[in-house]
């Protein structure tokens, strides 16, 4: 099995894929689009848009949403584990440089 490289600078729906991953990780960590928006200093609508575009690109739902609750789907939990690790590794590498 060879290495598979993901284009982190790829755009999805006109948005930066890495930024969408950051937004997704924060929304998953807090289980709140509003809290993620506050933490990232963007609008709640922009959080929703990033999540929507990421879901469309992946072809899976990452969150179960109701008017009062947000929870991760099984695919969302798996993607959260991977994305948070990617972000952690890149942040650690940045500190080394």
Write structural notes for this entry.
It is a single chain. With 97 residues, the protein is mainly alpha-helical. The protein is 62% helix and 10% strand. It has helices at 17-30, 33-40, 44-58, 74-96, and strands at 11-12, 15-16, 63-65, 70-72. A two-stranded antiparallel ribbon has the order 1-2. A two-stranded antiparallel sheet has the order 3-4. The longest helix has 23 residues, at 74-96.
Brief digest:
The chain has 97 residues and is mostly helical. It is 62% helix and 10% strand.
The mean pLDDT is: 88
| Low-pLDDT residue intervals, each spanning 5 or more residues | 1-5
Helix content: 55-70%
Beta strand %:
5-15%
What are the key terms here?
single chain, 97 residues, mainly alpha, two-stranded antiparallel ribbon, two-stranded antiparallel sheet, 4 strands, 10% strand
């Amino acid at each position: 099995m060879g290495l598979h490289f993901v284009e982190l600078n790829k755009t999805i729906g006109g948005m930066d894929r890495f930024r969408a991953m950051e937004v997704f990780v924060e929304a998953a960590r807090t289980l709140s689009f509003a809290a993620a928006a506050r933490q990232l200093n963007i609008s709640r609508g922009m959080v929703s848009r990033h999540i929507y575009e990421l879901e469309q690109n992946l072809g899976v739902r990452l969150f179960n949403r109701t008017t009062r609750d947000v929870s991760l789907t099984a695919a969302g939990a798996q993607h959260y584990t991977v994305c948070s690790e990617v972000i952690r590794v890149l942040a650690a590498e940045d500190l080394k440089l």
